[in-house]
Amino acid sequence: MLREPTWDIVVDDDGQTLAVRPSGELDMSTSPELVTAFGKAKGQAQLVCDLSAITFIDSSGIRALIELGQREPERFALSGASEPVERLLELTGVAGWFRRTSAV
């Protein structure tokens, strides 16, 4: 019996930082939800995508991160990239394109 991959996304907004914490597989079917979550950004100083719970990422997920980073280059940052995510960012040559933060 095939098990459905798990996916969840939590959005926290303290007025200063909009933190989006996806978990599971960031792929063609889930990356639009990630982009939509950041559409809730208003005047926050920082937009953080915490990738520590991502177990898999494909080119659609990378494309979503690039889109978000290009849309908000001063405010968007990655946090806690899991090993699979970091490996793909490195392999695709975009790891250095993102500001990094530990604050989430």
Can you put this structure into words, describing what you see?
- This protein has 104 residues and is α/β, with parallel strands linked by helices.
- The chain has one domain (7-100): STAS domain (Transcription Regulator spoIIAA, 2-Layer Sandwich).
- 29% of the residues lie in helices and 32% in strands.
- It has three helices and six strands, in the order ββαββαβαβ.
- The protein has helices spanning 31-38, 59-71, 83-91, and strands spanning 7-13, 17-26, 46-50, 53-57, 76-79, 99-100.
- Strands 1, 2, 3, 4, 5 and 6 form a six-stranded mixed sheet that branches.
- It starts with 6 loop residues before the first strand and ends with a strand.
- The model has no long low-confidence stretch (mean pLDDT 92).
Task: Characterize this entry briefly.
By secondary structure, the chain is of the alpha/beta class. It has 3 helices and 6 strands; from the N terminus they run ββαββαβαβ. The protein has one domain (7-100): Transcription Regulator spoIIAA.
* Alpha carbon gyration radius: 13 Å
Helix content: 25-40%
Mean pLDDT: 92
Give the low-confidence spans: none
Number of helical regions: 3
What is the third-level CATH name, the topology?
Answer: Transcription Regulator spoIIAA
Strand content: 25-35%
Major sheet: size, sense and barrel closure? Answer: 6 strands, mixed
Task: Determine and state the CATH class.
Answer: Alpha Beta
Termini Cα gap: 37 Å
Secondary-structure element series: EEHEEHEHE
The number of distinct β-strands equals: 6
